[in-house]
Amino acid sequence: MGDIKKVGIIDYGTGNIASIFKAINSIGASPFLISKKNQIKNCDCLIFPGVGHFGEAIKYLRKNSLNESLAYIFDSKIPVLGICLGFQLLTQASDECPHEEGFGFLPLKTERIKILNQLSYKVPHIGWNSINLSNSNVSLLNNIEYKDQIFYYSNAYSIKYNKSVKLKLASYTHESEWIAIAEYENIFGVQFHPEKSRAQGLQLIKNFISIAGKS
User: Fold this and answer.
1) Over the stretch 97-125, which tens digit does the pLDDT of each residue have?
2) Average pLDDT of 68-80?
3) Sheet containing 109-112: which strands, arranged edge to edge?
4) Residue 202 lies in a domain
5) pLDDT at 2 over 80
6) With bands split at pLDDT 50, 70 and 90, how would you rate the model's confidence at 156?
7) What are the phi and psi torsion angles at 23 (to 5°)?
8) Mean pLDDT of the chain
9) How is residue 76 annotated by DSSP?
């Protein structure tokens, strides 16, 4: 990847990001925690981590004025990766907290997973699941063979797959079809946890960080 990329990890008070730091260090990049808006300009790319509650995360970011940097993030074309909850924060809204708006980087809405066949499918959705559909060339899956496109999930909320949305998308199935990956310009979201998904997850993070060198 050439020079060492500085990867900012957005802090919204979850305190459970050690696995992301470990994954980023393992592929030769340099992670650091972002808790103030002026720190964002010091990184090559940003990650919104994947543990916590939608409403509490939004309130924490607002309290610490990190939400004021959203326009800069999008306009500057800094690559952004949202993981699980972090992906959901990039959407317009979530059933988890209907009274709080998401960042709206992606024209999507996060829904509570509702299951009809409760003998076969559980909520939360916890465990491994494979990518089963892509509507385009999803760059986060570069150099990951199809047989290895299986990732670890831990989520009670997700985003319905809609092929009419003008984004690059890949999906997974948990009774219904849901979005596994979304890509739009400099904004990337994954519903699974790549930092907990073995070698293929590390490759996906490496793919994301490599985009920072092209922006």
Assistant:
1) 999 999 999 999 999 999 999 999 999 99
2) 86
3) 93-94, 109-112, 157-158
4) yes
5) no
6) very high
7) -65, -45
8) 92
9) H
Could you tell me if residue 16 is inside a domain? yes
Does this model's pTM top 0.85?
Answer: yes
- Name which of 27, 22, 21, 20 is nearest 4 in CA terms: 27
Count structural domains, the chain: 1
The dihedral through the CA atoms of 138, 141, 145, 150 has a sign that is negative
**Phi and psi at residue 59, in whole multiples of 5°?**
-65, -40
Residue 1 lies in a domain: no
Structural tokens at position 69: 């940097």
CATH of the domain at 130: 3.40.50.880
Give, as one character, the DSSP assignment of residue 194: G
Beta strands in 39-92 (DSSP E): 45-48, 80-83
**Catalytic residue annotation:** 84, 193, 195
Q: Which of 197, 36, 195 is nearest to 131 (CA)?
A: 197
40/120 Cα distance (integer angstroms) = 43
Q: CA separation (Å) from 141 to 34, 78, 150, 175, 206?
A: 27, 20, 11, 23, 10
Categorise residue 155: left if φ over 0, alpha if ψ from -120 to 50, beta otherwise: beta
Rounded to whole angstroms, how far apart are CA atoms 192 and 50? 9
Burial class (CB in 10 A: 0-12, 13-18, 19+), 181: buried
Task: State what percent of residues in the chain have pLDDT above 90.
Answer: 74
Query: 153 or 62: whose pLDDT is higher?
Result: 153
> The domain containing residue 102 runs over which residues?
6-212
